[in-house]
Amino acid sequence: MSQDELQTFGLLEIEKLLQSNGKSLRNYAGMPVPNKSLYDTVSLTHEHDANVSKLNEEQRVVYDKIIDCVSNKRHGFFFVYGFGGTGKTFLYRVLSAKLRSEKNIVINVASSGIASLLLPGGKTAHSMFNIPVEITEDTVCRIKKDSPKAEVFRIADLIIWDEAPMTNKLAFEALDRTLWDIMVSVSDRNKDLPFGGKVVVLGGDFRQVLPIIPKGSCAEIVIASINSSVLWKYCEVLRLTKNMRLAIGSEQSTAQELRLFSDWILQIGEGHCGTVVNEKLFVDIPSDLIIPVLENPVEDIVNTIYPNLVQNFRDPSFFQDRAILASTVDNVEEINNYIVDLLPGEEKNYLSADSICGSDAYSDVDVDWITVEFLNQIRCSGPPNHLLKLKIGVPIILLRNIDPAGGLCNGTRLVVRDLGTNIIGADIVSGSNVGDKVFITRMSMIPSDTVIPFKFQRRQFPVSLSFAMTINKSQGQTLSMVGLFLHRPVFSHGQLYVALSRVRNRNGLKILLCDEGLDDAGRTENVVFKEVFDKVKF
Ligand SMILES: Nc1ncnc2c1ncn2[C@@H]1O[C@H](COP(=O)(O)OP(=O)(O)OP(=O)(O)O)[C@@H](O)[C@H]1O
User: Per its UniProt record, what Gene3D superfamilies does this chain match (predicted)?
Assistant: First the structure.
């Protein structure tokens, strides 16, 4: 490589890092800029040309509408509504390749870290748009109008936001206000348009888990969804209904079997199958999917999903593609602790350092009363527990986005290889960087749990065991073997659908039902807030 090529290569790498943080070399006076486009326009053109002809009719309609808006500099707000496998990601990739090959700027984000890894140059929406964790009707994103990030949004041609239904509508409204503010200074014509006149494409599936509202009622959760937002009236819903995952590759008989399975899951997602008893919806589970309870339900599901655990435990691929899912954190912890105790090897216990945050005044809480021991006992969603029990060879899941570009985000699964005093070595087993060896250090985490009336921080490794995980945590994961532990039935919209749709075929699914109080053992409760579908207009 010549000196010039080397310099261009180095500058492009720096520019990529800067752009992933919403900045650019152009924002720093005196810095040289690469004399080539950040994207390899030739290979993007090839990628686009190879895939555009494969788009099915529905995908083509969406593609044409969006390209038309961007090419003619018209605003547009779309929702691409399709269940898993209908080719949303494929479509986003073709769109991004087309526009980037023509030097347009495309911002790809997703609500979760896992989904963002599937998008070209994807980031989580919260980090890309600096959306505050605590959000109200008046919130704006933390982006200054004269900042480099604002400049990127000013010139962006398309924003794609995947898995939109799981994000609170207030986050989209905050982005709308922020873009309005940025764009209105460019042209007055933007002042009456949503998102300041940008072309914005949201995507996802309303059958999946909706925004989390701690202890929220059906009405509260439906009202927090994007399709209850004031912005929704500007949105054009574009539907994808053809399952492309099944359409390609499978033999006829297998495809037929897969289709039946996929249709059953969709019916469950929409609340169209089952029996209503006392205003609750129950679904019959086919007997061949049920794990019989012999004595101890935990032992029964572990033996089914992790057969010959102690012998297979050293096989690096054993944990790669399987997990037990449960609806509550208590059940998840019970299963994880049961398994880790069974395994051979020295156990290492890591304790967190917990402390009350800053000098915030809590008018209704006596801070002196809050001891460290009390903080240690708090178990909340987000940070790990005070005590983390690990052994070499166990699977863990990340609880924070550490390095999304390196495949380390909230939801990435790993297998522990080294347990140091201040560092954990692990191999990535899911997502875009499978096989990479990484090191994880402790970090301070502040729970955003609004049920706790004060703020505290926990310094701990941002991981938990992942033999079992909550259904909500599994959204976005693809597994080949799933054991669904329904000791307590699901309690919120979309959970049963998400749990059942983690596997690609029926052979990979087993369900243990032991809902206390249910007379009929072959059934489980399903929760579907049908109101959320009523608000999707076509
Ligand atoms: N038009 C197409 N031609 C060929 N293959 C396609 C097409 N559309 C999608 N696929 C393939 O079908 C599979 C499912 O598509 P994709 O992952 O884009 O769906 P999705 O809607 O994003 O699903 P999920 O929500 O589960 O991620 C992928 O393997 C993808 O490459």
Answer: P-loop containing nucleotide triphosphate hydrolases
- Model ipTM value: 0.98
* Best residue among 119, 244, 502 to mutate for probing ligand 1, ranked by most atoms within 8 Å of CB: 244
Q: How far is CA 242 from CA 377, 409, 477, in A?
A: 48, 30, 21
For a substitution probing ligand 1, which of 63, 248, 474, 477 has the most ligand atoms within 8 Å of its CB?
248
- Nearest by Cα to 161 from 95, 255, 224: 95
Tell me the sheet residues that pair with 398: 463
Q: What is the CA(87)–ligand 1 centre distance, in A?
A: 3
**Best CA proximity match to 71, nearest among 41, 117, 109, 102:** 102
Which residues, listed in sequence order, are joined to residue 503 by a DSSP beta bridge?
Answer: 479
Q: Which two three-digit tokens encode residue 225?
A: 């969804």
Of ligand 1's listed atoms, the one at least distance from the Cα of 244 is 12
pLDDT level of residue 303 (50, 70, 90 thresholds) = very high
- Tokens (6 digits) for 95: 């769109």
Closest protein CA for atom 8 of ligand 1 = 87
At 80, the pLDDT band (50, 70, 90 cuts) reads very high
From residue 80, alpha-carbon distances to 59, 91, 167, 236 in Å are 9, 10, 15, 9
Asked whether the beta carbons of 350 and 383 are under 8 A apart, the reply is: no
For residue 184, the CA-to-ligand 1 centroid distance in Å is 37
